[in-house]
Amino acid sequence: MRIAIQGEPGSFSHEAAIKLVPDAEIVPLSLSAEVFAALSTGSCESGPVDAAVIPIENSLAGSVLEHFDLLLTHDVKVEREALIRIRHNLISIPGAKTGEITRVFSHPVALAQCRRFLAEHPHMESFAYYDTAGSVKQLVELRDRHTAGIASAAAALYYGAEILNADIEDNPENFTRFFLLRRAAESVFDPASNKMSIAFSLEDRPGTLVAALVELSAIFTNMTKIESRPVHGKPWEYIFYVDCQIRSADEATRAINALSPHCVMVKELGRYREARG
């Protein structure tokens, strides 16, 4: 299976893809929009694409909002999810020392999650980069002993770099939830699914959100997450994204049916097994 990810090999998305599909071939792409486009059309410049793995939520930074928008606008389904423990490391070319590092590159979220370490090393100036593993790839290409990246241990191994300081994140309770996506027409329903993701928009009348949530509660569906996103081009209108625990396929269908009378639109984003840490 060829799986598209946003970012470079050695990234946390790469790690999640291998956890979900151990023998997968990774297709790295620069932008999330390119990942969804490649999955939707079935190919990209480097060849066919069978699936995609995307981060959807971090336990510290919150939801990846762009990915909610892309899930709604593409004909894809969530087929599986995985939880990855995020461990950040200061990485350099072999032979460099921590005291020599003056510039640190990484994804903005990774930099934000390592504020304490960076504050303890004021000689290090941080710079935002498009990808954690990409920052390591760059420093290996430059061979600059004064530059470091913040990324996973897998990135250091993949690019032949060296970990100077391990586990530098501020909070060890740092997990990211990833989705495995397939084209809707090719997605295979897992009969052991115990979780479902839904997107819906409401009728413009008082109390519709409360009424919709009461309907879900009435059938004892346990809602584990709710997120709202603005509708592009329609100020003050919103799409709601909900994750629910389900006990059967019948309960999933009843949840959809319960929402429909109160909603302008309901889209099932996928049914899958809930990931455990």
Proportion of helical residues: 25-40%
Q: Low-confidence stretches at least 5 residues in length (pLDDT < 50)?
A: none
Q: Which structural category do the helix and sheet elements fall into?
A: alpha+beta
Task: Output mean pLDDT.
Answer: 94
CATH fold assignment of the largest domain: D-Maltodextrin-Binding Protein, domain 2
Which value, in Å, is the CA radius of gyration? 21 Å
Strand content is 35-45%
Principal-axes geometry comes out as elongated
Q: What is the annotated CATH architecture of the largest domain?
A: 3-Layer(aba) Sandwich
CATH class of the largest domain: Alpha Beta
CATH fourth-tier homologous superfamily of the largest domain: Periplasmic binding protein-like II
How many strands?
A: 17
Distance, first to last CA: 24 Å
Q: What is the count of distinct domains?
A: 3
What is the count of DSSP helices, taking H or I runs of 4+ residues?
9
What's the helix-strand series?
EHEHEEEEHEEEHHEHEHEEEHEEHE
Main β sheet profile: 6 strands, mixed
Characteristics of this structure?
alpha+beta, elongated, 277 residues, D-Maltodextrin-Binding Protein, domain 2, Alpha-Beta Plaits, 9 helices, 36% strand
